[in-house]
Amino acid sequence: MVYTNSNLPFEKMLLQFMSEKDPMLSMLKWLCDQLMEAEVTSKVNAEKSERSPERSGYRSGYRVRRFDTRMGTIYLFVPKLLPCM
Known about the structure:
single chain
């Protein structure tokens, strides 16, 4: 499940995770998604859909990657990047 609004209060986010089939795996997937987005934002020097003169690249969709952990397998959408021309 994708959590698009990360500004939810902690209690509401926790309740959303607890309603999942495997709460710990859901939390790990959310954390991985947030870390990947933060890394891409820092590499590109712009938020998603933001226009900025400091931009050093562009997002170009996602690719699916399998990630095996002790808690189970999750499928991550890894952002693709293109350099600025």
